[in-house]
Amino acid sequence: MRAALLLLLLLPALTSAADVDEVTGLIRNPGWEQVRAHCGGCHSHALVTSQRADRNTWLDTLRWMQATQNLWQFEPSVETQILDYLAENYPPTANRRRAPIPPSLMPGSDKEMANKQ
Ligand code: HEC
Hints:
Bound molecules: heme C
CATH architecture of the domain at 32-92: Orthogonal Bundle
């Protein structure tokens, strides 16, 4: 009984862990071999995996590298696989900045003035 409960508790952790390639750090989902082949020659794959963006922004990044960094042109089908993979596996994240400081804690607020008196 206990073992069964434990297994139930662990199951989500076991099934949701993404399968990550040990060498490149890329998530092994469809299209990852294209990214492995085309995106690690000039910089680390870590530069790719540390980035989060929507499809359009990924496309902008590719176009920028093609225009200024000697990135080669892709076959349309290859480019689609790369963009689908990037947008799917490295999408934009929710804003990770801290919440704004409450006005009452900002310099010059009444409360702060009160504290100083
Ligand atoms: C021909 C060389 C080359 C290839 C191949 C290449 N890149 Fe880049 N990439 C660069 C250079 C150069 C930079 C700028 C690096 C720096 O700022 O240190 C860069 C920067 C980046 C950045 C950071 C952009 C930013 O806004 O800071 C990302 C993300 C990126 N590349 C993704 C990719 C992806 C995805 C691929 C595969 C489709 C790829 N790169 C293939 C040359 C390349």
